[in-house]
Design brief:
The chain is an alpha/beta fold. About 35% of the residues lie in helices and about 25% in strands. Helix 3 crosses helix 4, helix 3 packs parallel to helix 5 and helix 8 packs across helix 10. The protein binds adenosine-5'-triphosphate. InterPro entries: AAA+_ATPase, ABC_transporter-like_ATP-bd, ABC_transporter-like_CS, ABC_transporter_ATP-binding, P-loop_NTPase.
């Protein structure tokens, strides 16, 4: 079996403590290739897990394999197949976008010619070609973040870890980056991202893991996580759109049809909307903590679209 056929990530009994503070406790997880998101409140251990999986820090107990390779014993080999983009863009402001790309290419041992070819391609893909020769200090936050991700892709990694890739970006830059992440995944690169934005996980990820107090408290698709929290609800509105009443349902077509027929007969004047639980409600249910205001996507729709 080659590494391309192995699970993307395999974790068994993984634990990590800082002194007496148990940050990760006995984690078990197997993920196939694709886009996966790790959600959790501040201090839940998301960055710690990403740092372990990307070989930056050792774990205390258990096993972690990425692309079939042991994160500690086969660290060097693994480092050639993955890349990590952290919360703060690690590009050099005094250099141009192209110079940053070439420097990264050199670091990964590419020839100047190969690095130039890859840099041209990536800067074009991330819509940075026009600014390639401008100093990065003149770039916007969104452009820096895109350059950081483009630079991390220069050696063609199989898997890219993105630690809070869109924190601090405005809605438009966030959307543009989501498009890039989807394009990357379409071209065969797997993505493991951490995020505090519930909508980001909802929109992008095939699997979502929720980390809380060192444990993975939920793992599934956005739809599965929402189903855990409960079935759809029926909201009744007046003509001005004000919510008059919210009725819980079990979510089956039969249950919904019965409730809707009863409303049609007894309150024909109201309008109705059927809504699924939002990721905010899922987060609150699973972690006991509301997603903090800053962790919500600006202008995020109130209702999830799935
Ligand atoms: N080097 C360290 N030494 C001691 N404690 C640490 C260290 N790194 C992280 N921690 C602690 O471990 C816990 C988890 O931190 P981590 O950065 O992994 O959380 P996170 O989920 O990424 O949080 P955030 O969303 O705020 O970035 C926190 O309580 C943090 O203070």
């Amino acid at each position: 079996m080659t590494y391309t056929e192995k699970p993307l990530i395999e974790i068994a009994g993984l634990s990590k403590s800082y002194g007496t503070h148990h940050v990760l406790r006995d984690l078990e997880l197997t993920l196939p290739r694709g886009i996966h998101a790790l959600l959790g409140p501040n201090g839940a251990g998301k960055t710690t897990l990403v740092n372990i999986l990307s070989t930056l820090i050792p774990h205390d107990a258990g096993q972690a394999r990425v692309l079939g390779l042991d994160v500690q014993r086969e660290k060097k080999q693994l480092q050639g197949l993955i890349s990590l983009t952290g919360q703060y863009a690690a590009v050099d402001g005094a250099l141009s976008g192209m110079e940053n790309m070439l420097m990264m290419g050199q670091l990964f041992g590419l020839s100047r010619r190969d690095a130039q070819r890859r840099a041209d391609d990536l800067l074009g893909r991330f819509d940075l070609a026009k600014s390639a020769n401008k100093r990065v200090s003149t770039y916007s936050g969104g452009m820096r973040r895109k350059l950081d991700i483009a630079a991390s892709l220069i050696a063609g990694p199989q898997l890219i870890f993105l630690d809070e890739p869109t924190t601090g970006l405005d809605t438009r830059s966030r959307q543009a980056l989501w498009d890039e992440i989807n394009t990357l995944a379409d071209s065969g690169t797997s993505i493991f991202l951490t995020t505090q934005y519930l909508e980001e996980a909802d929109v992008l990820a095939q699997r979502i893991m929720v980390l809380n107090d060192g444990y993975i408290v939920a793992d599934g698709t956005a739809t599965q996580l929402k189903e855990r929290v409960g079935g759809s609800t029926i909201q009744m509105h007046d003509a001005a759109g004000h919510i008059l009443e919210t009725l819980p349902t079990r979510g089956s077509a039969e249950d919904l049809a019965r409730e809707l027929t009863s409303i049609a007969e007894q309150r024909p004047e109201v309008s109705v909307t059927v809504r699924k639980p939002t990721m905010d409600e899922v987060f609150l249910e699973l972690t006991g903590k509301p997603a903090s205001e800053h962790a919500r996507t600006p202008n995020a729709p109130q209702e999830a679209s799935r």
